[in-house]
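Title: Comparing notes on inverse folding

I've been comparing how different people in this forum approach sequence design from structure. To keep things fair, I'm posting one structure and asking everyone to reply with a full sequence. Here's the target:
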């Protein structure tokens, strides 16, 4: 059972060693509580008088013996005792895949890492709007837009490393998965070079989840048994277009609005049929999600008003969307356009 209690102005006693309890102290302070911290069962390290009867005792499991007697007395007198996890080791970096932008698709490991963070460097495609409810860490916006980098990649890596070396638990929150066009490999390499411990928590990639939000499966029995994920940031070479067109299956392009014209024309030159179904799914899982469906030969004009963030899906699986029109993520517009393709 999970309860929500207004702690504003309430006295909360946090028990546990300084390092282990630092996250809990910050969380309760962020909730508006008047926090007192007892770092040892013997009372060492107290810098102010403790409350005679706190509203709540938050017991951090720091591994020290001796706490149970104090906590037992609290329970016996009717003071609620809440168990709190200890903070993790200081001075490390965790790259967290934030999924397509909704907290509902954050993994359990991602939520735990955010809870344990001292500093979070986040991107605009991550579910940053909900971060205040997920962490009490310092939040730093390092988001990048096409053609505009608020903070350069090199500077992001420098900030991460410097913060970890200063003793912070650093989370680098990225949209999708860190290793799918997320430059996660570069960030891991920069941490390793600086001697900073680093780990990666995989995220739900938009290559699969955003088409699913529009009712489009990237594979489907007897329709497509493979899919290829392509970055849309830069135009593909003629050789790449030729191989892509000849591979078959489903093609998924991430952030491909800027190169849509080049891609559609190039695939046609490479031999892909003009009536190949194609979908543009904008702002997946976000307010204003929209799906535009056309054929390869007409998609450029049909998607003239589309913008990133968007995922392009090319292949006969787009037709399957009509059969999946009851899917919660599918839009009325997708239903109508997919139905017209089925009739074509």
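Reply #1:
Here's my take.
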């Amino acid at each position: 059972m999970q309860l929500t209690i207004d702690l504003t102005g309430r006295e909360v006693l946090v028990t546990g060693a300084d390092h282990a309890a630092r996250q809990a102290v910050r969380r309760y302070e962020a909730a508006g509580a008047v926090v007192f911290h007892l770092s040892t069962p013997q009372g060492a390290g107290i810098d102010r008088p403790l409350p005679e009867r706190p509203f709540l005792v938050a017991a951090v499991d720091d591994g020290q013996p001796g706490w149970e007697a104090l906590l037992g007395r609290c329970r016996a007198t009717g003071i609620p005792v809440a168990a709190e996890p200890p903070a993790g080791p200081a001075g490390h970096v965790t790259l967290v895949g934030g999924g397509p932008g909704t907290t509902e698709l954050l993994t359990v490991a991602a939520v735990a890492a955010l809870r344990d963070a001292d500093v979070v460097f986040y991107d605009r495609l991550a579910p940053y709007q909900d971060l205040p409810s997920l962490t009490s860490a310092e939040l730093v916006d390092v988001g990048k837009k096409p053609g505009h980098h608020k903070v350069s990649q090199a500077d992001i890596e420098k900030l991460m490393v410097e913060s970890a070396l200063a003793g912070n638990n650093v989370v680098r929150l990225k949209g999708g998965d860190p290793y799918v066009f997320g430059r996660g490999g570069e960030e891991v390499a920069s941490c390793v070079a600086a001697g900073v411990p680093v780990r990666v928590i995989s995220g739900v990639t938009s290559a699969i989840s955003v088409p699913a939000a529009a009712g489009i499966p990237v594979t489907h029995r007897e329709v497509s048994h493979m899919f290829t994920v392509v970055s849309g940031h830069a135009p593909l070479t003629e050789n790449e277009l030729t191989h892509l067109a000849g591979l078959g299956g489903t093609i998924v392009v991430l952030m491909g609005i800027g190169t849509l014209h080049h891609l559609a024309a190039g695939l046609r030159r490479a031999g892909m049929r003009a009536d190949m179904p194609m979908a543009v799914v904008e702002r997946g899982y976000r307010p204003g999600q929209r799906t535009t469906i056309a054929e390869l030969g007409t998609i450029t004009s049909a998607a003239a008003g589309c913008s990133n963030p968007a995922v392009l899906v090319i292949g006969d699986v787009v037709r399957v969307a009509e059969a999946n029109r009851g899917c919660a993520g599918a839009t009325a517009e997708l239903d109508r356009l997919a139905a017209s393709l089925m009739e074509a």
